Design the sequence.
């Protein structure tokens, strides 16, 4: 990587992947409540939904049989939906059998090492459109079986067993194999399928004692522990004042108290909230599970910011497309925070009935509650037959992406389709997802015809993110502009800041001086994620102030950021606070000490502190937990490089390839190491393999192409880079290499063709204009 970042380390980043287990009732709550007279203090505890039902029968009926209600259950005749009547399922050479022994459910399938054996099913997991099954393993661990039951009706393709990875063979040595850490229920899934769950991993014994209050996602998962509210209800019934406890004894008040409604102004076709939304507690609470995130603390705090308890992903590469559309399994939060709906004050419960989880009404009628049907429901808006799919609001503005083979999920960024950007950014668009037989140019022509050139000329932050991800210089001023514009969504601003880590420029540090104290914790967090890589000590003072931040993630990120600077620059009066926050960061990491990514993060922390021995041990522990984790090998090899131990670095990378020869990143790193050794022939072997294994990574192809030219093979270099350009038509490095190599070979007309593309795609780059002028004068 370039700029403020080190060459290969991902310091401070968390990794997202998500024989008896002692399930006990854990009733401790998360908030104290003082009485109205200020004298009585009670700690709210979990009491179970039976205590809620007595007064909230309607809400209970809505909740019953909802996805939350059926999120997890004990495997029995009432809950198991799959066919366990001695049925079989064959997948890529492995035949599994599902059967019963008395009242218990079993599967005969391959386990560790590919050995076939019987496994007892203990729990069902989820219900629509598929049901998974949990299997107990030693040490309190539970693993998710990769074969699931399709619960859809048979006429829709359901009522069958299927493999969650489709036609891909996941071998026993694969990091994604079902008995490996990445498929562990305790770490990956448990928090969001039960109420008040604590994973309780013991690092010393390497065992789990995972506990919960209710097996599914029940009332108190969202509303918080309810004992004080129940006590309030009894007291009021007995004649006490309703003010006997604040907020009726509720830990968090999710119901709007501002009497807001959605109203249409006389000249408006879109409703507005009658009063501005002052709290986003509901969105933050839902985000606990409906986001791509990792856990900071097992003591969840209802009513606080998500960043008080979790570490959310921004719009990161490989998780989101460059324009912010969902790519990997990222759920809803990161998408919704980009939307105009969120900015307008819409919350989850404006569209979804909160107890059933269902939308209030299906089809366009849901949208027409705030967007006038007369304006948005006719052909003059959507230009499609009203009876066809093209007239559906969600099909255009919330198109689906399918996960787990059968589970389509809608993108909640609620956007206008931009087929004109798809080719350059490599992004999907709703038009071509329906019209699969048409080109993006075809869709763009219709978009221009219907909505005018102004729409196509409207800049999209995805263009800047695409360039920023590749460290293109012209992206930096645009990233700064996106950040400074407070009309942009906080998720967009935060992502823009995070991409500035690819640049070493004084303007970045200048901007961070402002954003590090922004009112939104997401902005402050992103600022620290970049400030920690500053090349000098100039940012220490601004980071120190963040040690007192009101948001947990920001505080501990500040401590982690300071760990790489000389402690002599930290005022004596702040050193205890720094050490306290650093211990808080370490404690947060230890919650996930069962996952190898934690130990990579520890290695990065120790490396920052100059403790190379501990850093080495941490990277090695990460490899021991999960030998398939690429980052641990690369970071360890880089540590060896820093300490003039490239021979050991070569050995560790070779050991990775012995087990996993298809790891392109390791092949690439080994190729670079061989170049440092002066073994250019050996380097080319690894660089060629990296480029072949991951043609989607433009850098691998570019470096190998340059290597071919350096070896005196310009024809091969041109041929290879031209093939790479098919996958990366806008990549400036590949285009520039093709320009210069053709110039060197006196293929001036060909060089001019590539140079003209550079000038067309990157008109603000003076270097490309000069190259073009030179070629035109030849």
Sequence:
């Amino acid at each position: 990587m370039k700029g403020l970042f080190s060459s290969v380390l991902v310091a401070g980043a968390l990794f997202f992947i998500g024989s008896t287990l002692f399930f006990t009732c854990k009733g401790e709550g998360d908030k104290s409540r003082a009485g109205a007279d200020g004298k009585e203090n009670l700690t709210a505890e979990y009491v179970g939904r039976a205590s809620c039902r007595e007064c909230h029968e309607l809400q209970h009926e809505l909740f019953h049989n909802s996805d939350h209600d059926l999120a997890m259950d004990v495997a029995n005749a009432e809950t198991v939906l799959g066919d366990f009547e001695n049925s079989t399922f064959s997948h890529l050479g492995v035949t599994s059998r599902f059967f019963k022994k008395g009242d218990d459910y079993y599967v005969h399938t391959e386990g560790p090492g590919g050995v076939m054996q019987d496994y007892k099913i203990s729990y069902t997991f989820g219900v629509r459109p598929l049901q998974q099954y949990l299997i107990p393993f030693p040490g309190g661990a539970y693993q998710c079986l990769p074969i699931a039951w399709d619960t859809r009706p048979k006429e829709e393709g359901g009522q069958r067993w299927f493999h969650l990875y489709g036609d891909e063979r996941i071998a026993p040595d694969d990091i994604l194999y079902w008995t490996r850490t990445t498929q562990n229920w305790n770490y990956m899934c448990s928090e969001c399928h039960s109420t008040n769950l604590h994973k309780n991993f013991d690092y010393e014994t390497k065992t789990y004692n995972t506990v919960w209050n209710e097996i599914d996602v029940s009332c108190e998962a969202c509303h918080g522990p309810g004992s004080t509210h129940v006590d309030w209800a009894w007291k009021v019934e007995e004649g006490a004042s309703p003010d006997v406890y604040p907020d009726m004894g509720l830990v968090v008040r999710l119901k709007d108290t501002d009497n807001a409604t959605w109203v249409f102004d006389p000249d408006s076709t879109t409703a507005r909230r009658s009063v501005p939304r002052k709290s986003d507690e509901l969105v933050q609470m839902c985000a606990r599970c409906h986001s791509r995130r990792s856990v900071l603390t097992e003591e969840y705090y209802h009513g606080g910011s998500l960043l008080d308890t979790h570490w959310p992903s921004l719009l990161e590469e490989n998780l989101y497309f460059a324009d912010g559309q969902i790519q990997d399994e990222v759920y809803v939060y990161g998408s919704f925070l980009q939307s105009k709906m969120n900015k307008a004050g819409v919350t989850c419960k404006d569209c979804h009935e909160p107890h059933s989880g269902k939308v209030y009404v299906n089809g366009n009628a849901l949208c027409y509650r705030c967007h006038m049907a007369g304006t948005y429901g006719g052909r003059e808006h959507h230009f499609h037959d009203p009876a066809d799919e093209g007239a559906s609001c969600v099909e255009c503005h919330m198109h689906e992406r399918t996960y787990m083979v059968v589970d389509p999920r809608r993108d909640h960024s609620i956007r206008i389709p931009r087929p004109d950007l798809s080719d350059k950014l490599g992004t999907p668009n709703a038009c071509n997802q329906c019209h699969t037989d048409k080109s993006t140019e075809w869709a763009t022509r219709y978009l221009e015809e219907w909505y005018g050139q102004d729409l196509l000329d409207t800049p999209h932050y995805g263009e800047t993110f695409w360039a920023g991800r590749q460290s293109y210089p012209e992206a930096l001023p645009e990233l700064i502009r996106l950040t400074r514009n407070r009309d942009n969504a906080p998720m967009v601003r935060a992502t823009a800041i995070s991409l500035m880590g690819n640049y070493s420029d004084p303007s970045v540090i200048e901007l961070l001086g402002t954003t590090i104290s922004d009112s939104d914790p997401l902005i402050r967090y992103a600022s620290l994620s970049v400030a920690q890589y500053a090349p000098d000590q100039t940012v220490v003072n601004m980071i120190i102030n963040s040690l007192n931040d009101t948001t947990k993630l920001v505080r501990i990120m500040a401590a982690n950021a300071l760990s790489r600077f000389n402690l002599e620059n930290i005022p004596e009066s702040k050193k205890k606070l720094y050490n306290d926050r650093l211990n808080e960061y370490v404690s947060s990491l230890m919650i996930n000490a069962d996952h190898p990514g934690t130990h990579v993060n520890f290695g990065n922390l120790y490396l920052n502190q100059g403790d190379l021995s501990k850093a080495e041990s941490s990277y090695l522990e990460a490899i021991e937990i999960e030998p398939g984790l690429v980052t641990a090998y690369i970071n360890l090899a880089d540590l060896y490089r820093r300490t003039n131990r490239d021979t050991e670095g070569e050995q560790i990378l070779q050991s990775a390839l012995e087990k996993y020869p298809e790891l392109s990143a390791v092949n690439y790193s080994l190729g670079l190491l061989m170049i440092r050794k002066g073994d250019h022939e050996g380097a080319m072997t690894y660089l060629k393999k990296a480029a072949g294994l991951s043609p989607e990574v433009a850098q691998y192809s570019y470096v190998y192409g340059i290597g071919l030219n350096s070896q005196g093979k310009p024809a091969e270099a041109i041929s290879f880079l031209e093939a790479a350009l098919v996958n990366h038509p806008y990549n400036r490095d590949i285009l520039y290499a093709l320009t210069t190599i053709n110039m060197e070979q006196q293929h001036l007309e060909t060089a001019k063709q590539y140079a003209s593309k550079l000038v067309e795609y990157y008109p603000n780059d003076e270097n490309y204009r000069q190259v073009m002028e030179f070629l035109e004068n030849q």
